[in-house]
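Hi R.,

Here's the chain you asked about this morning:
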Amino acid sequence: MPPRRHDAVRVGLAALLILAAPLLWGGCATRADGPADLALWRIVDRGCNGAGPHSASATLQCEDRWGYAVLKDRCGATHFLLIPTARRVGVEARALQSPDEPDYFAWAWRERTHTLRAAHARFGVVVPDDDVGMAVNSRYGRSQEQLHIHIDLLAPGLRAVLRALPAPLPADATIEWHGHRYRVDRVANFARSPFRIAARDWGAHTRDERARLTIAVVRDGDRGFLILSDAASWRRLDRGHAEELLAPRKCL
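And the predicted structure, written out as tokens:
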């Protein structure tokens, strides 16, 4: 049977949403000091690399030796961002597939202490490492054209879903969250970058293919880490937004 008209309209609208995502989330907006989608890059480049005027901020921590910065996100009391101090447009950057590239997820995990301290100050409880996650959105699920890893508490209910995963983990393991299906890999450490693992799992060999990837990493107790990956797809109404695996947040 031919597709019904409203189904065709639904798919068409989904396609427009995916393709227009850079516009909807600030891709073409401009400010007096440059494009809005380069705001994070300007903060880091000026604050850490000395490229132009910069007002000192207690919310920016530069780790020049390791090539990254940590920035307190203005939205969410426990939400922090790890940002390379080198120009890396996003998940699709070719350099992220090189074994010589700094492992930004490993550094982000080290910097989870910011989230843990903020959670203790906010809620008055000690939050375990297993309740912290890291995420990178796809080209179609982000607002900034500089790689940034979100660090925050996990979304309520996600830990229970992850605990239900079998051990050992089958090669085709997946979880579903908010209607999106994530592939799951269990690794002992960050010896292999999650960027490279996700590209392998999804057969993402080109820049355009990698641009669709979205990745989250969470602690898996004594067994190491779980890498959850998905790919944006207009057919599946999925813009590739692994940040949905982290706690919902409001701007302060």
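Residues 116 and 127 are 6 Å apart (CA to CA).

Let me know if you need anything else.
M.
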